[in-house]
Amino acid sequence: MTPLLDVQSLTKSYGGRIGCADVSFRLYPGEVLGIVGESGSGKSTLLNCLAGHLAPDAGEIIFDTRAEGPRDVLQMSEPERRMLGRTDWAFVHQNPRDGLRMRISAGGNVGERLMAVGARHYGEIREAATDWLNRVEISGDRIDDRPAAFSGGMQQRLQIARNLVTGPRLVFMDEPTGGLDVSVQARLLDLIRGLVRRMGLSAIVVTHDLAVVRLLADRLMVMKGGHVIETGLTDQVLDDPQAPYTQLLVSSVLQV
Amino acid sequence: MIEVQGLGKQFTLHNQGGAVIPVLEGAAFSVAPGECVALTGKSGAGKSTVMRILYGNYLAQAGSVMIGDIDLTRAEPREVLALRRETLGYVSQFLRVVPRVPTLEVVAEPLLALGAEEQVAFGRAQTLLSRLRIPETLWSLSPTTFSGGEQQRVNIARGFAHAYPALLLDEPTASLDAQNRETVLTLIEEAKAGGAAIVGIFHDLEARNRVADREVDVSAFTPRAAA
User: CA-nearest residue of chain A to B12?
Assistant: First the structure.
């Protein structure tokens, strides 16, 4: 099987400091990869390099495009990369304010991404927006409200709807449940899992919450100081961690 | 179906002075289709460790575990994931689910993950939940709030939803009343008749004698230095 994403020796430094160093991995269709590590471990740098928000210093990011098969994203022209970001890729920010337009309606937020790929029929756009609001459990009568009038959990669900409406194949998520209270987190996790299964999505989820990755991720990558120090099946890494740092991380979790 | 050879396992505790604890050495046994093998040995002998290595939760330092024609100890993560989806089932002692997901969906999930029609998957889930006496009023609720025995039965229903050719059972009859225990033992017998190779841990002696064809004493694999 062709990997959806094949990352080779990705490196990014900020001046003399390491952001992430020599990261390689493959992601296959339908897989969810969790990236865990403490603040400053390089997990967000890595995610931003992968998603094209930051330019890495070295390495390759080969994505299996629909039209032309595997291509190095870093060698693509800027318009090609932007198109990818609007169609096959999606990015869910930790703070919904970074991923939403706060001054336009919920329906407009979802519809905008459709218009960016050429949809022009108002009725169809509105219909798709209503359908997606339902899927993320936002009542249809809130379609004309601005996200500013939504709770944090609703904003995060709206951001997911906005991202998934174009049927992407790869979703990047940066701490998708961070900052939400636990009952809202559970609802969001359930939603993301259902969407991943039904749409056959692949996802890369950055988080520091080990409980979140246990439920969401098939595979896990542990980072420290910009380096990947351990990889494997999620339950294997959490139940039988090999690296000293992973053992410390797993044993530091408070039991509820 | 399941072939274990020269299996060795040790834990290295880097944060406790780098202590190395050998737990398993030269473990070897095999299970044929339609056969049930019970792991025995006193508490701490390594029964659960063997189970976890068989499921791929624990890494082995030596030896091999063949499930069908795949060596679990050397397989890529995505091969292990596919193996767990299609071939290798595991009924653990604890139910681990996403909160808020209804019981019926929890049980049907292994079938849905295999691409079964919703109708077929939910039908099978309903049959299993009825047989295991989970009242229908609970099916639409998340099992996270259920009693210990109910959770255990939901877990068993989930484990038996798909007819895995290889099945691992960790104390499947613990904390069950006589009627439900009987149902679980019948489910195990049906799986065996269907050709499943089963490895189980049964503290319930009667249950063990009824479903297990052979016993493998794990104490034989305990490294001498540690014993």
Answer: A242
Res B226 pLDDT > 70: no
| Residue in B72, B88, B98 to test binding to A, most A beta-carbons within 10 Å | B98
Examine the domain organization and report whether A116 and A158 are in the same domain. Answer: yes
Tell me, yes or no, whether A126 lies in a domain. yes
Query: Does A199 reach chain B within 8 Å, measured CB to CB?
Result: no
Nearest to B78 among A31, A187, A190 (CB): A31
Cβ A61 vs Cβ A73: under 8 Å: yes
In a domain, A2, yes or no: no
- Is the four-CA dihedral A135, A140, A146, A148 of positive or negative sign? negative
| DSSP string across A135-183 | HTT--GGGTTS-GGGS-HHHHHHHHHHHHHTT--SEEEEESTTTTS-HH
Q: Which of A129, A147, A167 is the last residue of a domain?
A: A167
Range of the domain at A199: 25-55+78-88+170-256
Q: Residue A199: which CATH number? A: 3.40.50.300
The per-residue pLDDT for B227 is 44
Whether residue A219 and residue B12 make contact (CB cut-off 8 A), yes or no, is no
Residues A83 and A109 in one domain: no
Confidence band for B225, pLDDT divided at 50, 70 and 90: low
CA atoms of B139 and A194, how far apart (whole Å):
18
Which residues of chain A have a CB within 8 Å of the CB of B15?
A: 244, 247-248, 251
Residue A39 lies in a domain: yes
Q: Which residues contact B182 (CB under 8 A, 6 or more apart)?
A: none
Distance between CA B51 and CA B38 in Å, rounded? 11
Q: Where among A167, A185, A203 does a domain terminate?
A: A167
**Residue type, position A227, single letter:** H
Q: Do A192 and A240 lie in a common domain?
A: yes
Residues in chain A with CB shorter than 8 Å from the CB of B58 are 236, 239-240
The whole-chain average pLDDT of chain B stands at 92
- Which chain B positions have a beta carbon within 8 Å of A243's beta carbon? 14
Q: Is the pLDDT of residue A239 over 90?
A: yes
Helix (H) or strand (E) segment spanning residue B186? helix B178-193
Rounded to the nearest angstrom, the minimum Cα separation between B13 and chain A is 8
d(CA B104, CA A229): 39
Distance (Å) from the C-alpha of residue B224 to the closest C-alpha of chain A? 23
A28-81 confidence digits (pLDDT tens): 998 999 999 988 899 999 999 999 999 999 999 999 998 889 999 999 999 999
